[in-house]
Specification:
The complex is a heterodimer.
Chain A (H helix, E strand, L loop, with lengths): L3 H63 L3 H22 L7 H26 L3 H88 L14 H50 L3 H17 L3 H20 L3 E3 H19 L3 E7 L7 E3 L3 H13 L6 E9 L3 E8 L6 H8 L15 H12 L5 E5 L5 E8 L6 H7 L2
Parallel strand pairs in A: 2-4
Antiparallel strand pairs in A: 1-3, 4-5, 5-7, 6-7
Chain B lengths: L1 H27 L17 E6 L5 H17 L2 E6 L5 H13 L4 E5 L4 H14 L3 E4 L5 H4 L3 E4 L2 H16 L3 E8 L4 H14 L5 E8 L3 H14 L5 E4 L5 H11 L6 E5 L5 H7 L4 E4 L2 H16 L11 E2 L3 E4 L4
Parallel strand pairs in B: 1-2, 1-3, 3-4, 4-5, 5-11, 6-7, 6-8, 8-9, 9-10
Antiparallel strand pairs in B: 10-12
Helix pairs in contact in B: 2-11, 3-4, 6-7, 8-9
Classes of the chains: A alpha+beta, B alpha/beta.
């Protein structure tokens, strides 16, 4: 991974490299020019050295001729040595263009030394006149040497003229180069810095934007950062966090939903219990009384009345017992039959009740007291108001995944509004004679029990009857309904 | 907007790179390198041509011939000398040449004591061969190896003959000589007089002058006064011809006079083309240069030893104004 630190190091290295290379180039150039200047100066100094050395020899020779002491002789040897050294230095200056002049120059120096030596020799042989003559000759040669020095320097200047001018031009050009280089470095550093800062700040900006979104509560936007450094790592972790939070939130929402459903369930139960309590003034007393009445009727030979009373008692007991737990479809059907028996006694031949039951479905679990309120509803709306009575069909049909329970009547039917009201679980005003539990209560309980909305379906048209269809799955989806009441 | 900024920046960057590169190339790539130092070439013979009259047309030709030849022979040669017959400077140059241990000296002969002593004593004792060129000095005086140049006696004779053919065999002739007569001038004069003495009707007046311009003018004036009906002039020293003609032309027309001189003066050629000179002896200066270098190289390489002491003569011919 490309880290930010690495990037900074790279930038610093590049800058450092540029600086070092420029420094090296400048130093190298300086050194080169310095050397050139040194060489040039050296040449002139060497030539000047020859002139002064030869003059020194003349002075010393003169001193010696006037006062031939050993010290003066020593002095001459020293200065002669000097001019010899100078001559060897001159050797080094020879090049193609000044070869002729410098050879002359060197030979002139040789001649000079020879002449001085001759003068010394004559002096030692005490030939004063000859010595003096050689001395004057040496003086003349010394003069020639200094003249020649000037000439050689002159030619030197001519030869090197272009070179010197070149050096001057170069130094002018060098200044220009410095300015160009400065500008170039400024621009390139600007570019480099821009690029570099972009690679760091752009991901940070993206991250900031993402964080902003997150803080506003939008957890569904994916965080994407185009970079390959720590920021991208940060972004990935951030994204991970976002996903986790998202999951957590949806989990909490689900839980809250469940909690809410549970709460509602409890409320409904309480309501139905309250209703049933309201309607039972000491139900056991009523139950016992009904049984006594039944026996009494039987003893008095009114068997039909006795049976009817047994049915009423059974219905009452079922009502008391079964409201808060699931029962089998079989039990529900038994209760339904008892209820219908009572109603038949009431309506005699005005009520026609048809039952089609697929026996294999009777072990299905179903919330208690669900079918009876629906049939009761049908009786109230389809039979009661009609003078000629009517028919009610009750069917249990087996399907592959579903068991379909149909309750159909041929009464006046319901308005669409009413159907809607019922399905939306709004309170429907009950009309008089119900056993206590409203249609909407049933719908609610069914939906809670099976966990889906479409468990109940109502087909109705005014004047042409109503058909209530329950689609009950063969396998339960939600198990919570069973457990919740047990905790009581 | 940012994109435009970056594009401009890149553009500037490119331009700056270009200029920097160009500038750097100029700085680090200098087109002139100093001459390489090298050990002195001991093999090469070092010759010097010394003249009194540097940068006159005549001596320029001698030098160019000599330099050409030296190049061919592989010797290095330099031309030294003095300007305008400065004898002191000329002699100094010779002395320096001797002290510089030249391998050979080609010199314009000068018939003076100092010259003789330099060539005879110093050069000879240092073993440096000397060849005189253009102007000779007597062999005995200089110990020169040989002479390269014109036969001055013959030149004098040719000029006299030309004079006779132009002027006829009778007339008055002024011969302007030099007070410090040099050897070659003596020879020329000798040649002229040798021819003219056979013609008794040709009257000659010989006058001497020093070589300063004022003096030449004064002398010419004096001569014209002495001999107003003169027919012809001969300037033995070509250097004096200019001043002489200038003075004549101040008096009268130059054309009627027959004026002759030699080509080794600075003004000779221009005077001839102007028609002021009637005739001029033309020598072969290039040939002299060539031959002198050739001979000294032969002597140095022991090819021809000894050289012909009488000298090696180069061609001369007369050039008339009408030929130009």
């Amino acid at each position: 991974m490309n880290t930010i630190q690495k990037k900074i190091w790279t930038l610093a290295t590049v800058v450092l490299f540029i600086m070092v290379s420029i420094w090296l180039a400048f130093t190298h150039y300086n050194q080169k020019t310095q050397n050139q200047y040194n060489d040039i100066l050296q040449r002139y100094l060497i030539m000047n050295e020859v002139t002064s050395a030869s003059q020194q020899v003349i002075t010393d020779l003169n001193n010696y001729l006037l006062n031939p002491s050993l010290a003066n002789l020593e002095q001459i040897n020293v200065s002669q040595e000097k001019i010899r050294d100078a001559k060897y230095e001159v050797y080094k200056l020879v090049n193609a263009e000044n070869e002729f002049a410098l050879t002359n120059y060197i030979n002139l120096i040789d001649s000079f030394i020879e002449t001085t030596n001759r003068s010394l020799m004559f002096q030692s042989e005490e030939e004063a006149e000859a010595s003096a003559k050689e001395f004057s000759e040496a003086t003349r040669i010394s003069k020639y040497i200094s003249e020649m020095t000037l000439t050689v320097i002159d030619t030197e200047l001519k030869t090197y003229d272009r070179f010197y001018r070149g050096i001057i031009e170069q130094s002018v050009e060098f200044k220009k180069l410095g300015i160009w280089l400065l500008l170039l470095i400024i621009v390139s550093l600007l570019l480099l810095t821009y690029w570099f800062s972009l690679t760091i700040t752009r991901p940070v900006q993206q991250l900031t934007k993402a964080a902003n979104e997150l803080s506003k509560g939008r957890f569904d936007m994916q965080i994407k950062v185009e970079s390959n450094d720590e920021i991208s790592f940060l972004a990935k972790t951030f994204d991970h966090m976002r996903i986790n939070i998202n999951n957590l939130i949806s989990e909490i929402q689900q839980k809250a939903q469940l909690e809410h459903e549970l709460q509602q369930n409890k409320l409904l139960l309480k309501e139905s219990q309250l209703r049933s309590l309201q309607s039972q003034i000491n139900p056991h007393f009523l139950f016992n009384t009904l049984n006594t009445l039944s026996k009494k009727a039987y003893l008095e030979g009114a068997e039909e009345t006795s049976d009817l009373l047994v049915s009423v008692a059974g219905l009452l007991r079922y009502n008391l017992k079964r409201i808060d737990r699931s029962v089998t479809l079989y039990e529900e059907v038994i209760v339904l039959q008892q209820y219908m028996e009572i109603q038949k006694t009431r309506f005699t031949d005005r009520l026609e009740f048809n039952m089609e039951i697929d026996e294999s479905c009777l072990q299905l679990q179903i919330p208690g007291l669900t079918l009876q309120p629906i049939v009761e509803n049908a009786v109230i709306h389809a039979i009661e108001p009609e003078e000629d009575g009517g028919s009610i069909w009750f069917r249990i049909l087996d399907g592959i995944e579903w068991v379909t329970i149909e309750i159909e009547d041929d009464g006046v039917g319901m308005s669409e509004d009413k159907v809607k009201q019922i399905l939306e679980e709004r309170l429907v005003e009950t009309e008089g004679h119900s056993t206590g539990i409203g249609f909407s209560n049933v719908v609610k309980r069914l939906r809670l029990f099976y966990g889906y909305e479409d468990v109940i379906h109502i087909e109705s048209k005014e004047g042409r009857g109503t058909k209530v269809v329950l689609k009950i799955p063969k396998t339960r989806r939600i198990e919570t309904y069973e457990k919740a009441p047990d905790s009581r | 907007l940012r994109k435009i900024g970056i594009i401009i920046l890149c553009f500037v960057f490119t331009i700056l790179s270009y200029f920097t590169f160009v500038s750097a190339e100029k700085v680090f790539h200098s087109d002139f390198q100093p001459p390489q130092t090298s050990a002195p070439n001991e093999e090469q013979y070092r010759l010097v041509l010394i003249t009194q009259e540097l940068e006159t047309p005549f001596w320029d030709k001698v030098s160019s011939g000599a330099i050409e030849q030296a190049k061919k022979e592989g010797a290095s040669l330099e031309v030294w000398g003095s300007y305008g017959n400065n004898q002191e400077d000329f002699l100094k140059k010779i002395e320096i040449a001797i002290h510089s241990k030249m391998d050979g000296i080609i010199v314009q002969g000068l018939d003076t004591e100092e010259f003789s002593s330099l060539t005879k004593v110093k050069a000879a004792s240092s073993g440096i061969p000397i060849i005189t060129v253009a102007n000779d000095v007597p062999i005995a005086e200089s110990l020169r190896k040989t002479y390269v140049g014109s036969d001055q006696n013959l030149a004098g004779k040719m000029i006299a003959k030309q004079l006779l053919s132009d002027m006829g065999i009778s007339g008055k002739v002024i011969i302007l000589g030099e007070s410090e007569q040099e050897y070659h001038q003596q020879q020329r004069l000798q040649g002229i007089q040798d021819v003219l003495k056979d013609y008794p009707n040709v009257k000659t007046l010989y006058a001497e002058t020093t070589d300063t311009k004022e003096q030449v003018i004064a002398t010419t004036q004096d001569l014209l006064n002495q001999l107003p009906d003169v027919d012809a002039f001969i300037a033995v020293n070509a250097n004096n011809s200019g001043a002489m003609i200038q003075e004549i032309s101040r008096r009268s027309q130059v054309e009627p006079y027959h004026i002759y001189t030699f080509d080794d003066g600075p003004e000779s050629l221009s005077l001839l083309t102007q028609g002021k000179l009637d005739g001029m002896i033309e020598q072969s200066p290039e040939k002299m240069g060539e031959l002198s270098v050739n001979l000294i190289m032969k002597w140095l390489t022991d090819e021809t030893v000894p050289l012909n002491m009488d000298g090696y003569l180069t061609d001369i011919r007369i050039v008339k104004a009408t030929n130009m």
